Amino acid sequence: MLRYILARIAMMVPTLFVISVLVFTIIQLPPGDYFESYVQELQMLGEPADLQEIALLKEHYHFDDPMPLQYLHWVTGMLHGDFGYSFEYRMPVREVVGDRLWLTIMVSTVTIVFTWLLAFPIGVYSATHQYSWGDYGLTLLGLIGLAIPNFMLAIILMYFANVWFGLSIGHLMDVKYLNQPMSWDKLHSILAHLWIPVVIIGTAGTAGMARRLRANLLDELGKQYVTTARAKGLSPGRVVAKYPLRLALNFFVADIGSVLPQIISGAEITAIILSLETTGPMLIRALQCQDMYLAGSFLMFLAFLTVIGVLVSDIALSLLDPRVRLQGRRG
Amino acid sequence: MPPSTRPLPDTARDLLRIDGLRVSFPLLQGEVEAVRGASLRVRPGKITALVGESGSGKSVTGQAILGLQPANARVSGKVWLDTGAPVDLLTLPHDGRAIRAIRGAQIGMIFQEPMTSFSPVHTIGNQISEALRLHQPMPPRALRARCEEMLGRVGLPDPRRIYDMYPFELSGGMRQRAMIAMAVICGPALLIADEPTTALDVTIQAQILGLIRDLQREFDLAVLLITHDLGVVANLADEVVVMHHGQVLESGPTEAIFADPRHEYLRGLMNAVPVFGARARDRLKPLREVPAEGIRALAAMSVPAAPAAPASATQARPLITVSGLSKSFLPRNRSWGLFARSEPPLRAVDDVSFEIRRGECLGLVGESGSGKTTVGKMLVRAFAPDAGQILLHDSAGGVLDVPGAAGDELTALRQRVQMIFQDPMSSLSPRMTVGQILSEPLDIHARGTRAERDRMVAALLRAIGLGPAVAARYPHSFSGGQRQRIGIARALALGPEFIVCDEAVSALDMSVQAQILNLLKDLQKELQLTYLFISHNLAVVNYLADRIAVMWRGRLVELAPREALMSAPAHPYTRALLAAVPHPDPHHPLDIAAACMPATQAESAWPAAFRESAEAPGELVDLGDGHLVRMQPMADRRDLDGTGGAR
């Protein structure tokens, strides 16, 4: 097992290397760089550009070096925890992301917990009461939830909240706390606002997960070992909880790999519509205006989380399922 | 014909009495009746066998006793369980407390598939102790002790270790033992065994049957044995109940039933089973025979009109020569540590040499894991051998190197050599019509025009007795036997000379099995085919094969003409294999004690002449008349006679 984990971690290095090359290539693909578009913008506005400062920055960030060298500087910087400089915000990337990262993690974590808490009982009920009215009703609800795009739900909720209650449900906190240091009042305000994005972002996820759990559980419920367990004299509830549900859990765990990056990128479009103070809108903005270090570091971070997520889910799976743990792979 | 019931010996009471049981399943239109008014009884401490083919309703009868039938089934009738005060089990609330107190505690149940009957993610101990804890709560320490004791009682070595193992770490036979331990741990009065040995090898089957009989005697356990195997019934049962289409046709004491089967169906069933002895090569009489005209028509289409050479000349020349064939598989890495011990590779096939003569059927017999399927797969070039030679000769004297064939040679090989698989379910694509399945090989090898291919498909379908009308249907609409016939037709499409039949009838019912065996026999005769017939069932091989090869742990231990191997087996493993086959004859009981020897100990009990070691490997020694046996080359031949054996 230890050997397996070490091998898996060793495998991460080349994976991340390839990803970093790809990311770097992609953010360099559009013609020009940030400073060119910046100077252009200033000229269009008729303002004088401080060409000297730009030249300094360009030199500091090795913009005139050949590509491979630029790549090397970027990567070695990241290894030291220096994610570069956001030209758009004119501060280091770390500080730009700062607060937003924590807010994003909070929104996403709450969303995931919400999704699981809701999807689990729905999935189990649907599977154990297959083709009942309850199953049909939940299936209908689930399909509606899957079919409506998140941002549409966000717009609809915003509209009705405004028309019926005269509420503005945008932002993650009351407007007066924006850019304020963290305080109890601010936290309170955040928590009060949290449920709306959680419901909006979580709806489709809940519906999808309930459907998958139902399908997985139905597969397991038909298996021979379920009959064996019933033949022992176990009560129906205990049978489901101990055997098929335990096996259907595997896919929850396998899901962690894709969940981790979602936590950070977190429903960009919904976040833009609701003006949430999360990282999603920032990533899109950074990509739009060629803020290469901000965008690049961000993409790298997402890739890193994906790789970690897959590793964590593989290890968890092998802990959960003895077949994965003990059978290993064929030589 | 009304059900014929023999007078049964009077007993004070029956442990289980089923009266007029009906089970039906609702369909989109109407409903289908799986069990139609079946009645039977199980006496305390006795074994009642419930016999029938798949679809006869025998399994659902077993499930209905405990209320384990599928949720949409409708059940009526009476199921009296009498362990003091009689209860009608069907009146108890579904999955309620009362029936749950009976499940596991008074009636235990074991199933056909030891692979899937245990949850794969819980340990054996966890699952067995659960049954005990449920009905007889006791402290964890005592619980574990009782479970280990029972695991030891069912013949598992090292129960302490097995308690903490997962089901997939055990072999099929060991899993079935653990399953039995779980079913009897609460000391039930009745054990329902649903095809308990069908998925097992003959030797393991004999061991499990022996175990069931021992437990029955030791714990005064009554057993309802659900099976399709008349050999198992004859060896184990006190009373027999024959079911067909949901009805009981015949019931009575085993002796009487076997001596004088009154019902036409049971007589048919008995004629459909391949047996040893004098009647061994008589043509089997399946309940429904496939007519042979179609085969002759197909032969006229595909075989060149004039035989290439006089029969005797071609007979002498081998079609396939195999020499020094070896194949290893790397074992799985089970180590948890940082540095895995590197285990030696597993030798699945170890220096195997034999030849297959043109027009013969060579039977290849062995337990699972003996390497017989690996040999078959190498012959059709599904695996590449690690070492050794496989040569395919043609009648003109040309030679084709099977592992080394490439380009045109490989194309030719694919047309000359075909395979028939065990599982008729998974070997046909569910997304293709039968017509597409059969014409695909013709398309790939660009045989003829569209119209000619269609004619060929029609001829193939006629040959297997299905008729060209079924070409537009999909495989799911056929029964297992029909699907296997389609698989045979596919193998025949290109007009091959040589067909590897890998357990081709193992998954089929008895009467269907007879039908397929006869079909294979007719095809061989009319189309001048050569077969390698791989099977673990010696009776089946005996029916079809001209010569029989026996494999044990990757080695060929004996190769002989059929009569010689059956009448005078020389190798102790062959003898054990023959002894483990249950005969459908109550006067010919199984020697269970001989079969119960674990394989690891068996080798050390062999006469010295057959024991092998790294320093003194055995060799194939010719006993005369092409009877080869693997033994110590220097050993005295007279030793063989000393072991009650051959010539």
From TrEMBL, chain A:
Keywords on record:
Cell membrane, Membrane, Transmembrane, Transmembrane helix, Transport
List locations, semicolon-separated.
Cell membrane
Gene3D superfamilies reported in the protein's UniProt record: MetI-like
Q: What topology does the record note for this protein and the membrane?
A: Multi-pass membrane protein
Give the ABC transmembrane type-1 domain ranges: 101-311
InterPro entries on file: BPD_transp_1_N, MetI-like, MetI-like_sf
Task: Please give the CDD domains that the UniProt record associates with this protein.
Answer: TM_PBP2
The UniProt transmembrane annotation reads 9-29, 101-126, 138-167, 187-210, 294-320
Q: Name one GO cellular component term.
A: plasma membrane
- Which GO annotations describe the biological process of this protein? transmembrane transport
Give the family this protein belongs to, as stated in its UniProt record: Belongs to the binding-protein-dependent transport system permease family.
Stored PANTHER family: INNER MEMBRANE ABC TRANSPORTER, OLIGOPEPTIDE ABC TRANSPORTER, PERMEASE PROTEIN
Identify this protein by name.
Peptide/nickel transport system permease protein
Q: Which organism is it from?
A: Rhodobacter maris
Automatic annotation (TrEMBL), chain B:
Keyword list (alphabetical) reads:
ATP-binding, Nucleotide-binding, Transport
Look up keyword Magnesium and say if it applies: no
Q: Which SMART domains match?
A: AAA (SM00382)
GO CC list: plasma membrane
PROSITE patterns tied to this protein: ABC_TRANSPORTER_1, ABC_TRANSPORTER_2
Chief place of localization: membrane
Gene Ontology biological process terms in this record: peptide transport; transmembrane transport
The record describes its membrane topology as: Peripheral membrane protein
Which GO molecular function entries does the Swiss-Prot or TrEMBL record give? ATP binding; ATP hydrolysis activity
Domain ABC transporter stretches: 16-270, 320-578
Gene3D superfamilies with a match to the protein in the record: P-loop containing nucleotide triphosphate hydrolases
Which InterPro entries does the protein's record reference? AAA+_ATPase, ABC_transp_ATP-bind, ABC_transporter-like_ATP-bd, ABC_transporter-like_CS, Oligopep_ABC_C, P-loop_NTPase
Report the locations given in the UniProt record: Cell inner membrane
What is stated as this protein's family in its record?
Answer: Belongs to the ABC transporter superfamily.
Q: Which PANTHER family match?
A: D,D-DIPEPTIDE TRANSPORT ATP-BINDING PROTEIN DDPF-RELATED, TRANSPORT ATP-BINDING PROTEIN
Q: What is the name attached to this protein's record?
A: Peptide/nickel transport system ATP-binding protein
Organism, by scientific name, is Rhodobacter maris
